[in-house]
Design a protein that fits this description.
Blueprint: E1 2-9, H1 23-38, E2 42-47, E3 55-58, E4 65-68, E5 80-85, H2 89-97, E6 105-111, H3 120-125
Antiparallel strand pairs: 1-5, 1-6, 2-5, 3-4
Amino acid sequence: MRFMMLMIPLGYESAPADVQLDPERVAAMMRYNEALKDAGVLITLDGLHPPSTGARVSFATGEPVVTDGPFIEAKEVLGGYWMIEVASRAEAIAWAKKCPGSPNEVIEIRQVQEMSDFSPEVQEVVAGFGDLKRK
């Protein structure tokens, strides 16, 4: 099963575009990333720039509307993610618990939908799309 572990750093919604990372925190996180890799469960990972550098496209009016960051209404934003492949939700939680997170960080764990999760009708509609190569 694939799971995304989504890092939610509280306060990141108002971080400046040139936010500086603490080298000691980065080193601790890299040791964690290496442990995921060495265990053979890591598929990919990435950190994300602050929302102040991003944009949102909304469709509430039926037409796309672009809003540049920062996003005033945001209470929580993503700071990065890991995609892992493990045998169970419990194993994904166990890996998240090993993260050297700080008191202002939360990890949300979400299982990735697989083609087998969908009805035969939906699988027919998306036939061939699941064959895309994953990196």
